[in-house]
Amino acid sequence: MRYSGQCHCGKLTASFETQKTPAALGVRTCQCDFCRRHGAVNISDPDGEVTIDCAPKDVERYSFALRTADFLICKSCGVYVAAVMGEGDSIVSTLNVVGLRLKDFLAVAEAPAEYGAETTEERIARRFDKWTPTRFEHPDLAASNFGPH
Q: What is the CATH number of the domain that holds 33?
């Protein structure tokens, strides 16, 4: 199944491919301050694929705390769409279904997720294990390094 969405103004788009239904996949609400302030509800599937399409000039890459990932925010409308980590062919992400308005996932019961006790190494390992392999349409972003900084 393929699900597609975009930020409010449409400058950042993402598609998510998975063989799992939204209910089987589930959604997570990270309890960190950033995600709670943005009302983020996240999905990922290590067996799926994410494609993100945007011009580098339209995306703000924000990093905080352990600086292990970049949070992609539209420079125009301010919507947080994804958290991304890795480089080259080893990029993974988790998508914010609220920011992208992925309607099929909005009715799925949210599972709170607390990651505050993880070490930097544990956090990176979990993300590479659980997040979705990701590619960027724009070549400048595809060649980028996304956390850790």
A: 2.170.150.70
